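Job type: complex structure
Entries:
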Amino acid sequence: MKLKKKMILIVSIATAASMIVGGFVMMVILRRSMLRDAYSEAAVNAVDFFAGFERRLENGGKERDDSSLVLIYKGLDNWRNVIFKGEQEIYNITVFSRGEMERVAYRSDVGDTDSDSREELEYEDGLYIVNAKTVGDYDLYRLYDITDVHGRIRSMIVTYVAVAVSMLLVVILVAAFALRKVLNPLEVLTEATNDMARGDYSRRVEVTSKDELGSLAVHFNDMAEAVEQNQRSLRESEEQKTLMMGNLSHELKTPMTAIAGYAETLLTTKLSEEQQNEALYYIYSETNRLGRLSNKMMRLLSLSEGDVVEKADIDVVELFQGIQEAVSVKKKEHSVEVETSSDAETIHTDGDLIRDVIINLVDNAIKASEPGGTVKVAWKDNVLTVRDEGIGIPEEELTAITEPFYMVDKSRSRKEGGAGLGLSLTKLILEKLGASMEIRSVVGEGTEVLIRGIG
Amino acid sequence: MLRILIVEDEEAIARMIAVNLECSGYSATVFHDGKEAAEALNLDADYSLALLDVMLPGMDGFQLFELVKARGIPTIFLTAKDDVVSKVTGLRGGAEDYIVKPFEVLELMVRIEKVLERTGALKKSENICGLDVDFEAMRVTRDGEELHLKTMEFKLLEVLIRNKNKAVSREKLLSLVWGTDFVGETRTVDVHIAQLRKKLGLEDAIKTIPKFGYRLEADT
């Protein structure tokens, strides 16, 4: 995974950088202090030689003779002692010349303080520093071997680098492990996202922590839920549309069969005048039925396409009067009365849409009523009620009746010119208005439709 | 006269079928409700054929079909559903045929005839326009005197008689008499019609329907 590699890289670079910087500083400090120790030891070591020489010189005697000095110091100490008298080399068994030694020599007696940047002489893998002092006519040099110190410094650096590298490895391992632990939810999320992209909208992830990743997982699940729900409702509405189209074409077939069949019969069959008139009547009435069906379908379509809802204060008396006029023919046909009542003067709603709703419901109520019955329309406590004392709707059909083309009693509805679209229209309109519809019905006693939330 | 049972809730369609059947010399009985039809079957089941709609109030077509089948009446389903499932259900159940709405009336008539022919209910002879037509022996006689017709002329006559009072287009006649594979001209039909008219003296009875076809008119 890229992010993991990136983070491991960042962690290792940071660790390595701090180890290099820290190690460098530490090494410089350690090296300096080790060298200082060595220098001071060298100084002490040299002082013994210088002081002894001085004493010998002061004591005088035959020992002052140069050759005896050579013998003494040759025997007394090893080759590290070098003695010059003026330009004359009295004792020097080193490979270094006087000039070389003088260049690097440290003279504590003249206040040579710059001990940190002392130069060293090199001979066959050995490193030497030189302390010098002038005693009387003599120039004394004392070599001190610091090869060992340098070796120690080197091995210290090697050890440090080894430790640092292994620590870096440990850091990388720990980081990788920790990152895997931390980033694992991300990988799970990635997989889940891929699954969703491939169409598995039921995919959810387990929430394992309370950190940012945990909350990401929670949000992912929320999103997945929303997507799934959206998808489902889309599919449902798609299915509903397909079902509606299927129903529509089915609904079209009946009048089409009749119209085409009568036309064919008129064209081909020797009919009596009465039979001819009958055929023409059926063609006419079936054509009307197609027209009604098409009108309702158009309305349904324009509603679902999104007609704009325009709310205003609607005069209730006027509204109810309009409805009485609209259903007056139907009323007479069925010998049914329509009574209206209201406890308010106005309703704040879309007048055209609510008119459609009420006409539809009243129309249904009239059709369901027996001759002599009464349909009551009431606006009370912000609830619109349309009630009839008609045949009622069986309980098991109550949920289905708002589906397009659904008819409780097909032959009865057809006779009334219905196509089963009225209540689905009503439902759509009410959805637009943000209102809800409740249907209560008892078979044989009547039906009551309550509409809430119109205003 | 052959009696045919029609159970179809759409009044317009039921009447249309009934009128056409009556014009072709059948007797049609119509019911709009499955249950009513079932009850009526208990009293009178003397039908040569039943035409059943699948979607019926009261009792659906398939249920009603069981009762019809039990009485030995062959059935043709009328269905608005052209889905395979209901076709299979209908045919596996033993229906003779099915026809999907919207259908051509003549198509329905032909299918009815085919079923009646299969079940042997179709009339084997007919007395029409003073002619005795024996469909089995393929012989036409007038007052006992045989009138000789060629095979195709006889078949054409048979189609016209079976669809009497109903105009049949030239194309339909061509396919019904000569068969769908026959590559011929509608002129062939005209020539044979002329022969029939001349040989059988049917100049008035076989009416020409302009731009369409021919119709044999006879009292039923």
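Summary: Residues 2-59 of chain A form the longest helix (58 residues). DSSP finds eleven helices and twelve strands in chain A.
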